[in-house]
What does this fold into?
Amino acid sequence: MILPRHWDRLTAALHAVDFNGNPEEAWRFLVYQGFTEDSEEGLRFFEDVVRENRDMDHPTGSGPVSFIASELIRERLVQTMHPKDPEGRSSNRSFLLFKRRNTPA
It folds into this structure.
């Protein structure tokens, strides 16, 4: 597991969202953040990875976020290098704005 002070933007974004409870919203947030292009195939792949992740026992030092991030990178849906986002401050603020913009009035 990566310590929060060493998170990059992708790791922080995945920590900010509830990918188990609402994988579609998590995918839309990754698109909103500019990590990936919005596509049905990408969304389906992401939902499959989240489903596979739920049933996994992660080895020591690894976790669900790193598994999902590495699968997205392996599938070339996201780039490999991202700016730092220590403690996820920027991603948490962005997710709150994203939620506000996408919540029906």
Q: What stands out?
A: The radius of gyration is 13 Å. The first helix runs from residue 9 to 16.
